[in-house]
Amino acid sequence: MKGVLVIHCGAGTWRGVDEETIKKVIVDTLRRGIDVLVGGGTALDAVVEATMSLEDSGVLNAGLGSVPDLRGNVWMDAGVMDGWSGRAGAAAAVTYPKNPVLLARKILELTDHIMLAGSAADELAIKLGLPKHPGPSERVKKRYEEVLKKASSGDAVFKKSFELAQKLGYFDTVGAVALDNEGKLAAAVSTGGVILKFPGRVGDSAIPGAGFYANKYGAAVATGIGETIMMSMLSLRAVNLISEGYLADTAARLAIQYHTSLYGKDTAGLITLDYRGNAYGAYNTQAMPWGYAKTETREVVISGLKKP
Ligand code: GLY
Description:
37% helix; Glutamine Phosphoribosylpyrophosphate, subunit 1, domain 1; 12 strands; 22% strand; 4-stranded antiparallel beta sheet; binds glycine; 8-stranded mixed beta sheet
């Protein structure tokens, strides 16, 4: 069996973002994750490693680069799922961990639960000695100031945060799906959520079936406006299509088509991987940088930088 790793840097407008920086993040992350598979690691090991790399990049909306909420604070969601065991773990509305995806994995492995949220989840991260998030970076703070300037009042921002994000240029969430040498699949996702969200808001990235899903046949990770993804159960839909016999590319296209028919364009994207090793990225936004690598060649393939 040959391993495959697929990652994405978030669906969105990607206006004003340096393409070379994103390509470098994709290459570095795929190399880091594929090395895990080459070294005999599991699909779960690889997706967590890759997602941590994306969280640590500081230029994407997750981990160190997470966008601010209405009050300028960072609240993050993350999830992981092991397709072989069917078990998932998720951390919702956390502020403490530098790598929320690592906390989601600990919740999967150490508890009988699927999701822990808020201050209690942060306490678990502290107890486990996970690295602390340093708080919003200068880059994130600057962005917050810029965005606030364009809004007339807090209420106006809250009610129009999606519209505003579209206007200002946005990109969302990171994620990874992998197939390991034993043919097992896994999915991982991490996000700072929607810019200027209401404090305490939880999005799709903490919800199995919505932001992420994996079983023995396929794995998928979604990105976009969480309020729409939670209602279309986008990741579950794509994995169900793969389980019915569709290849990863058709499943991704059909799932996005369905999502767009419900919620319109500029709302979502997803990456998919099937048990045969086929990988795909589909989106209804202007761009969704994504890429994949296989253990056989370690060659990196990048896509999604332009409009579909
Ligand atoms: N897709 C991430 C979020 O809406 O929170």
